[in-house]
Specification:
globular; Helix Hairpins; mainly alpha; 4 helices; about 65% helix
């Protein structure tokens, strides 16, 4: 990553937006965390559907066109909710970056070994 501060800035901006909307991710109870994780999962599901609709996925329909500009917007919308979810879980940009590095290493090891068997323990250290 050329400039790790960019991820920190996204997290800062998302926290400000969430607070503007009235969502305080710091110090949530387990019940509030559960509620907001589910809210963000549902929102991301909708954003994924909107992203899907940006590409011509109906093989039987000839009228569809690839809307790359809208696809980009939907990807950014997904980041909004994903960062919010990380914040609900108490993760900072640095936490996400470090976890990504560790999980990426796990994924490469899985590919090197053929990933023929699910091993839930290989990600416990993340």
């Amino acid at each position: 990553m050329n400039n790790p501060d960019q991820l920190r800035e996204l997290f800062r901006m998302q926290k400000a937006l969430n607070e503007r909307i009235g969502v305080q991710t710091d110090g949530m109870s387990e019940e509030e965390k559960t509620k907001w994780i589910l809210n963000y999962c549902r929102a991301m599901g909708q954003e994924l559907a909107e992203l899907t609709d940006s590409v011509p996925w109906k093989w039987w329909a000839k009228y569809q066109k690839f809307d790359e500009q809208n696809a980009r917007v939907e990807v950014v919308d997904l980041f909004h909710f994903l960062i919010s979810m990380a914040q609900v879980l108490g993760m900072s940009a640095d936490d996400v970056f470090q976890a990504y590095l560790k999980k990426n290493e796990v994924n490469f090891k899985r590919q090197e070994t053929g990933y023929v068997k699910k091993d839930e323990t290989d990600s416990k250290h993340i």
